[in-house]
């Protein structure tokens, strides 16, 4: 088990403007699962991803990654856990435009301080995602689909327990989106890598190990989840 979410609650604001964004969310994730989190805009799915990624703290409840309870950690420790245990892929690749493709992939390893074989490992990942021939290009010279391939390689470079992807195909044309989905699934199989993906377009991803449907800050089960899936 790589992730446990226990009775997670998140409030924003105060007084009459207080919003209960996540309501008693609980679930667990095993290594190698390919999971989709779906729901309409404002359902709480991106807030949930931020909690899992330790980018924001829950009001109450626990996020446990590889047996480490984030509630017991300070800011420096949380940053270290993010760097070691979690890889991120965003809707916009968030690559640094003044760096080359290779330099972007290497960067998380440099931040982690694990420089042994970092260029060798980065080049191997770029080969696997089909970007080896582009590795010396500045990222402002490659396409959006290519940038997402680089982002996947960057997300994998620290061998994280979990890859979190927030609308990773939302900024791509249909052909590029399909290629990125295929790539993520192949990476999941090749490395037994856990992927948790937030998407508004559930059907673009085809089969998944599990689909978690969020509505009004709650996880829906059974028939209600199936009804919502039809609408997404």
Q: Which secondary structure elements does this structure contain, and how are they paired or packed?
A:
Layout: E1 3-12, E2 19-29, E3 34-38, H1 45-52, E4 60-65, E5 68-69, H2 75-85, E6 86-89, H3 101-112, H4 118-128, H5 144-156, E7 162-166, H6 174-191, E8 194-199, E9 210-215, E10 218-220, H7 222-231
Parallel strand pairs: 3-8, 3-9, 6-7, 7-8
Antiparallel strand pairs: 1-2, 1-4, 4-5, 9-10
Helix pairs in contact: 3-4, 3-5, 4-5, 5-6
Descriptive report:
- The structure is a single chain.
- It contains seven helices and ten strands.
- With 232 residues, the protein is an alpha/beta fold.
- The protein has one domain: Rossmann fold (3-Layer(aba) Sandwich), CATH 3.40.50.
- The protein has a six-stranded mixed sheet, with helices on both faces. Strands 2-1-4-5 form a four-stranded antiparallel sheet, with helices on one face.
- Strand 7, helix 6 and strand 8 form a beta-alpha-beta unit.
- The longest helix is centred in the C-terminal third of the chain and has 18 residues.
């Amino acid at each position: 088990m790589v992730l446990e979410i226990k009775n997670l609650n998140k409030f924003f604001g105060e007084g009459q403007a207080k919003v209960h964004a996540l309501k008693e969310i609980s679930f667990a994730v095993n290594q190698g699962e390919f999971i989709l989190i779906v729901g309409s805009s404002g359902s709480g799915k991106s807030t949930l991803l931020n909690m899992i990624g330790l980018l924001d703290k829950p009001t109450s409840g626990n996020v446990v990654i590889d047996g480490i309870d984030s509630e017991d950690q300070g800011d420096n420790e949380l940053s270290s856990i993010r760097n070691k245990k979690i890889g991120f892929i965003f809707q916009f690749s968030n690559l640094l435009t003044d760096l080359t493709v290779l330099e972007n992939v290497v960067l998380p390893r440099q931040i982690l301080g694990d420089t042994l074989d970092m260029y060798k490992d980065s080049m191997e990942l770029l080969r696997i995602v089909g970007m080896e021939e582009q590795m010396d290009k500045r990222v402002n010279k490659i396409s959006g689909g290519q940038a997402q391939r680089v982002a996947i390689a960057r997300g994998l470079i620290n061998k994280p327990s979990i890859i979190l992807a927030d609308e990773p195909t939302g900024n791509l044309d249909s052909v590029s989106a399909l290629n990125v989905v295929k790539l993520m699934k192949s990476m999941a199989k090749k490395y037994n890598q856990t992927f948790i993906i937030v998407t508004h377009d559930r059907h673009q991803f085809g089969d998944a190990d599990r689909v978690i449907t969020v509505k009004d800050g709650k996880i829906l089960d059974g028939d209600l989840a199936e009804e919502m899936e039809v609408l997404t």
